Amino acid sequence: MAAPQSKYDDYDFPTTAPEAQPGHPGHTTPEQDAKVEQLRAELEQLGYTERLDTLTLLRFLRARKFDVAAAKTMFVDCEKWRKEFGTDELVRTFEYPEKAKVFEYYPQYYHKTDKDGRPVYIEKLGKIDLNAMYKITTGERMLQNLVTEYEKLADPRLPACSRKAGKLLETCCTIMDLKGVGITSVPSVYGYVKQASAISQNYYPERLGKLYLINAPWGFSSVFSVVKGFLDPVTVNKIHVLGSNYKKELLAQVPAENLPVEFGGTCTCAGGCELSDMGPWQESEWAKTPKWAAPKEAAPEAAPEATAEAAAEKEAEAQATA
């Protein structure tokens, strides 16, 4: 991992990845460390001052195979989106009082940890009923909730899990329940799922540790066997397509006491696992106030060249003259 930068690398949790994977914190080469510094310097030149810590830059670089130019474009696009979507303010202020009602038609929630210590994220795609949900909420608010939860995954969930595990954890274990998903249900949910997937891939890179697709309908495995030929081998190795006999494999990754009863575990949280938000991030020994919740210091008015708009303009000019 690149040498700590006191200006940006302000961590209060372990920062070494548990396994010696290329390009991961604690297991980088001098060449990769140099690319972190290059990317940081180029982003500083564009006026960026936030999210330039080493762990974040490494995630963007890994997502683009350590191509600095591509990672830079991805980062700039992400920052532009964050400003347009209002992400920094959203995580501080967003409230979702309709959550319990929405979850009746589309449960999606974080719940405890897997055997590697990572947060477990559960989504029951087969239950989704957008027509019913849009009587309760809006597509915009659903996406705002999604983004708020991604921000909370980054802080406080992953830092708390890292403290408890004694090692850096940057990803989650996702369980996607496809029970009830059929060809006829796909068109009605495609628009939302496409938007949600784009946000995940483009703005929150390298957050997937394992993905279990359970209750996969007939023929799904055959389709996936074709699709995976177009995916990165590293990504393919994270995905497990399982039918209705998924419990043994799922329990090999998630402790029974952490897995809701409906998926073969023994957990029965008071009030329901879907709304409990149980995990190390709720345990006083490991949880800390997220940095986004701390009062922001008043910053001096930025010069025009240091604004996000100016940064985007500079980047566009650089690409046009390249």
Question: Can you put this structure into words, describing what you see?
Answer:
- With 322 residues, the chain is α/β, with parallel strands linked by helices.
- It folds into two domains: 85 residues, N-terminal domain of phosphatidylinositol transfer protein sec14p (Helicase, Ruva Protein, domain 3); 186 residues, Phosphatidylinositol Transfer Protein Sec14p.
- A five-stranded mixed sheet has the order 1-2-3-4-5.
- Strand 3, helix 8 and strand 4 form a beta-alpha-beta unit.
- The longest helix is centred in the middle third of the chain and has 27 residues.
- The chain is globular and about 50 Å long.
- The two termini are 30 Å apart.
- 25% of the residues are buried.
- InterPro entries: CRAL-TRIO_dom, CRAL-TRIO_dom_sf, CRAL/TRIO_N_dom, CRAL/TRIO_N_dom_sf, PI/PC_transfer.
- Pfam families: CRAL_TRIO, CRAL_TRIO_N.
- This is Cytosolic factor, phosphatidylinositol/phosphatidylcholine transfer protein.
- It comes from Aspergillus brasiliensis.
Largest sheet: 5 strands, mixed
The domain count comes to: 2
The strand line-up of the biggest sheet is 1-2-3-4-5
Helix content: 40-55%
CATH C-level of the largest domain: Alpha Beta
One letter per element, helices H and strands E, the order comes to: HHHHHEEHHEHEHHEHHH
The percentage of residues in β strands lies in 5-15%
The CATH topology of the largest domain turns out to be Phosphatidylinositol Transfer Protein Sec14p
The SS-based structural class is alpha/beta
- Integer average pLDDT: 88
Shape: globular
Uncertain runs are 298-307
Count up the helices: 13
Supply the CATH architecture of the largest domain.
3-Layer(aba) Sandwich
- Computed Rg: 20 Å
Question: Could you give the distance between the termini?
Answer: 30 Å
CATH superfamily of the largest domain: CRAL-TRIO lipid binding domain
Quick one: how many beta strands?
5
Biased composition (Low complexity): 287-310
InterPro entries: CRAL-TRIO_dom, CRAL-TRIO_dom_sf, CRAL/TRIO_N_dom, CRAL/TRIO_N_dom_sf, PI/PC_transfer
Pfam family, one: CRAL_TRIO_N
Organism: Aspergillus brasiliensis
